[in-house]
Amino acid sequence: MSEKEEERKELKILIVEDQEEHVLIIQNALEQSELKKRIWVCRDGEDALNYLYNQGDYASKEEYPKPDVILLDLRLPKIDGLEVLDRIKGDEGLKDIKVIVLTASEEGDDIVRAYKGDVKGYLLKSAFIVSKSGKMEELLDALISLG
């Protein structure tokens, strides 16, 4: 297998999460996986959109490439996760990004709206954070199938 083929298999993951302890748990679980990946983190919806559109601090497409997968919280400062999802899925250049929601929201409207936004998974933080690794298997399986 050539270096270029190896490089293509690297999964670019953007975590959009405002709570530091949740970011650390997600990163730790991803680091323990055998996935070949690069990880970036945005702390709010506005920051995530700046990243996706290579604006402001994220102007360099080489340093901040388009992610293959976004792990998206719904309850975010500045711009909420559902608005971020709507913007992603409404943009021709971004709509092919796989989005997995990782949130505390069990509200039916949020779940329906997320799946209408073509998310590839909807995981509840309560189950994920408590088990720390149990739900990560679900997440990793989803990521592997996307890779």
Main attributes of the structure:
44% helix; alpha/beta; 18% strand; 147 residues; Rossmann fold
Structure description:
The chain is α/β, with parallel strands linked by helices and 147 residues long. The chain has helices at 3-8, 20-32, 45-52, 81-89, 108-116, 125-131, 134-146; strands at residues 11-16, 37-42, 69-72, 98-103, 121-124. It has a single domain, classed as Response regulator (Rossmann fold). The protein is globular, with a radius of gyration of 15 Å. The protein has a 5-stranded parallel beta sheet, with helices on both faces. Helix 5 (108-116) links the parallel strand 4 and strand 5. The longest helix is centred in the N-terminal third of the chain and has 13 residues, at 20-32. The model is unreliable at 4-8 (pLDDT under 50).
